[in-house]
Every structure is written in structure tokens, then in C-alpha cells.
Write a structure and sequence with these properties.
Helices cover 31% and strands 31% of the residues. With 417 residues, it is of the alpha+beta class. It folds into four domains: 2-47; 55-161, Immunoglobulin-like; 181-227, no CATH class; 230-416, Rossmann fold (3-Layer(aba) Sandwich).
């Protein structure tokens, strides 16, 4: 708890001395009396102290386990549990950084007698992950306004957002490279390759019966064999990546949401899918398939510290984490790298992984602005990094703040066509 003086009466003291001096020189008793009253008012706060407030906070949410995009109502009650009247009280609730207030306000002012309370409500939009409310900040002033105390009061409140967003349902959110890949081996796939002379033991379902009807020649149809793809979704969750536009989720929150959308078409294509992250610690979950793997990856995105909506204080060097990832990748594993491309290090990492033979595709949420010179410079530097990746053959999805992910992916497909 901190206390300081506002010095709001400093001007009154100066005016009182001026009035007193004029009253003495001009023999005006009324000015002398006025000066005396002013000095008393200005001196009184200096002779008193503001008692420390005793406060109790009760915070309640309408749903502690909402789905992404749900609106959660927050009700806050602050009670004066002390024996002194709080003439001027102001509270700002501790909304988690990754949650946006969509209705109401987390601020309130009040005057509270002993035992009295004030209640206010506001609403936030749920984002994937675990979100802990921080202590509310309370500022109190005494009746004179000269003494001001700032303190915090807490009530442990946490939202766990583990559901799936309904936004991508029924939509094509895949890239050209998402899905099953074709091998050079001929077998029982779906893509026609050639016909050859029938051999004993060939399946009768693969005989070209139309050709047999025309020419009497017995031939077998060959198809290109399909095999599943091994994919790792890699998240750039370093401190540098936690950038955001005003009142918008930061790049890591957006990247996690995008990765979770891509899980569905990847698993629908019977691919082997894994997850990794560069951040406060290296995160790795090896590729796998099936329902259990999909559930595990959703849980990992929602609960692992590497995907937290708030930035870490520091992180291991990126090149060390890239090496840890490379050691765990199979030779044919493809990579989807989610990053705002906020520095050259992540571009170097993407090119390094691609050079090792892992086909890299970058999905980059754009969190730059052009309202100031510094922000315009950051936007220009990011655009240059996008161009660098594309020139080196790494497909890069430039995902703007107002565009749905599926639109950004569609634009990328058209650009690659």
C-alpha cells in the first residue's frame, strides 16, 4: 500500500497569503478574514492522516469454463470492512490482458460508509487458454482530498477456455499443402497413373472393363498410392511475439486460435499431427493421429504454459530451441510456423528448418499499425520479412487483423496459383 499527498491545496495557500497581504496593506478586514479561512483549510489536511482502508472484494463470473468467443459476465462487489468512511474511492478491476471488455466498464467510483459496498458489472469475450484475474487496484482519498492511498485487493478468479470455436465449422480452411500427400509409388490410391497388361492375381475391381469390351484386351488400371502427411504446428510464443493492436488479442492468442482451426482439416485427412512452441520453454508433442491425439492437442493449447496469453519475462535463445525441434523431427515432417514475424531471428529459423528438408509454411498474424512513424517502420520491416520468405520458396499467409483465417488462406492459394 502506498500513500502520497495530492497537493491540491497548494494554490489555496498562495492565494490566502496574497489576500492577507492585500488586506493588511489596504486595511481590508474582510480580506484578512478570508485569508485566515483559506490558511485553516489548507493547513488542516497537513495535521491529519488518512486511515488505511480495509476492503473485501468478491468477484463472480457467469461461466468459468466458456467456449472461445463466448461473452462472460463479471460481477464485482467491493465492501468497506473497516471502521472509517471512505469519502472518495475508485476501483479498477484486474481484467486479464488477453480478454477484451465488450460491455460495461471495469471501473467504478463510490463513497462507502463502514460496512457498505458497491457493485458493478461488465462483460468480457472469452479467448482460448487459462486466464487469471489480477488484483483490483483501489485508490482512496480522505475528505479533504489531500491524502491519497493506492492499494490492491484480490479474489482468486480464473477462466479456463477449453472449448472449440464455432467459426470454422463447415468451411474450407486448408492450405494447398494440408491434407494427404501423394507418393511416387503406384498402388491402390485415387489418382490415375497408367494402364498395364493384366497379371495373374490382380484385383478384378482394377480391370479396365470398358477397354476389354472395346478391344477384348485385358488390362489393369494403376493409381498413385496415397500416404498420410506428418505435420507439426509450431508456435512463435517468444516475448517478442506478444504484440497486439489496440483492443485486439495479441499475436500469440490469434496464432493459437488459427492452429486449433487447422487441426480439424488435418485430422480429417488422417494425417499425423504434432505441436511445438518456441517461448518461455520449449514445448513438444510428437505427431500422432486419431481422436485421442486431437483431444490431447486441444488440451495442450489450452493449458500448457508455452501458450499462455501473457508474455514471459524471458526465454531461452531461439537457435537452441530450433535445434531441439530439429532433433525431434522426422525427415519427411512438414511444418506450419505461426508467427507475427516481428524480428529477423524467426525468419532465419524458418529458412533453417526449410533448408533441413522440412517443408515450411508460415501463417503470420499482422499486428502492425501505421498511425505513428515507429509503427509504420515496423509494418515496413514485417512486409520485407514476408517478401523474404516468399522469395526463398516458403509460402507465407499474411493474415490481417480484420480478415477471417479462411479468407487469408484463400488469398494465399490464389497467390500461389
Amino acid at each position: 500500500m502506498s500513500q502520497h499527498q495530492t497537493h491540491r491545496w497548494r494554490g489555496v495557500v498562495a492565494l490566502s497569503f496574497v489576500a492577507g497581504a492585500i488586506g493588511l496593506l489596504a486595511d481590508r478586514p474582510n480580506l484578512i478574514v478570508l485569508a485566515g479561512v483559506g490558511i485553516v483549510f489548507a493547513t488542516y489536511p497537513r495535521l491529519t492522516s488518512s486511515p488505511a482502508p480495509v476492503l473485501e472484494l468478491d468477484r463472480r463470473v457467469s461461466d468459468r469454463s466458456p467456449n472461445p468467443g463466448d461473452v462472460v459476465d463479471v460481477t464485482v462487489t467491493l465492501r468497506n470492512a473497516g471502521e472509517n468512511t471512505l469519502a472518495d474511492l475508485r476501483i479498477v478491476d484486474g481484467v486479464p490482458a488477453a480478454l477484451s471488455v465488450v460491455d460495461g466498464t471495469p471501473r467504478r467510483g463510490a463513497a462507502l460508509r463502514p460496512g457498505a459496498s458497491v457493485t458493478f458489472e461488465y462483460s468480457v469475450e472469452a479467448q482460448s487458454g487459462q486466464h487469471s484475474f489480477i488484483p483490483a487496484t483501489v485508490v482512496t482519498r480522505d475528505i479533504t482530498g489531500e491524502h491519497e492511498r493506492e492499494t490492491t485487493v484480490s479474489d482468486e478468479t480464473e477462466l479456463t477456455v477449453t472449448g472449440r470455436s464455432d467459426a470454422p465449422a463447415g468451411r474450407d480452411v486448408t492450405l494447398d499443402t494440408v491434407g494427404r500427400v501423394l507418393s511416387s509409388n503406384e498402388g491402390s490410391g485415387l489418382e490415375f497413373t497408367r494402364t498395364r497388361e493384366y497379371r495373374r492375381g490382380d484385383s478384378m475391381s482394377r480391370v479396365d472393363w470398358k477397354r476389354f469390351a472395346r478391344s477384348g484386351e485385358l488390362t489393369t488400371v494403376e493409381y498413385r498410392e496415397e500416404r498420410s502427411m506428418s505435420v507439426v504446428l509450431v508456435m512463435d510464443a517468444r516475448p517478442e511475439a506478444y504484440r497486439a493492436l489496440a483492443d485486439e488479442p495479441n499475436a500469440v492468442v490469434r496464432s493459437v486460435a488459427a492452429a486449433k482451426q487447422l487441426l480439424e482439416p488435418l485430422f480429417a485427412g488422417r494425417n499425423q499431427v504434432g505441436v511445438a512452441a518456441f517461448g518461455r520453454e520449449f514445448c513438444w508433442h510428437s505427431p500422432g493421429g486419431g481422436t485421442n491425439q486431437r483431444v490431447e492437442l486441444h488440451r495442450l493449447f489450452d493449458t500448457h504454459p508455452a501458450f499462455a496469453p501473457t508474455p514471459p519475462r524471458d526465454a531461452p535463445p531461439l537457435d537452441e530451441q530450433v535445434e531441439l525441434l530439429r532433433q525431434r523431427l522426422d525427415s519427411n515432417t512438414q511444418i506450419f510456423l505461426f508467427s507475427p514475424l516481428c524480428d529477423d531471428e524467426i525468419v532465419t529459423a524458418a529458412r533453417r528448418l526449410d533448408a533441413y528438408g522440412h517443408a515450411v509454411t508460415t501463417v503470420s498474424p499482422d499486428v502492425t499499425d501505421e498511425t505513428t512513424v515507429g509503427e509504420r517502420l515496423a509494418a515496413t520491416e514485417r512486409a520485407a520479412r514476408v517478401s523474404t520468405l516468399r522469395r526463398t520458396g516458403i509460402p507465407t499467409v499474411d493474415w490481417g487483423p480484420d480478415a477471417p483465417l479462411e479468407s487469408a488462406l484463400a488469398n494465399n492459394r490464389r497467390a500461389m496459383a
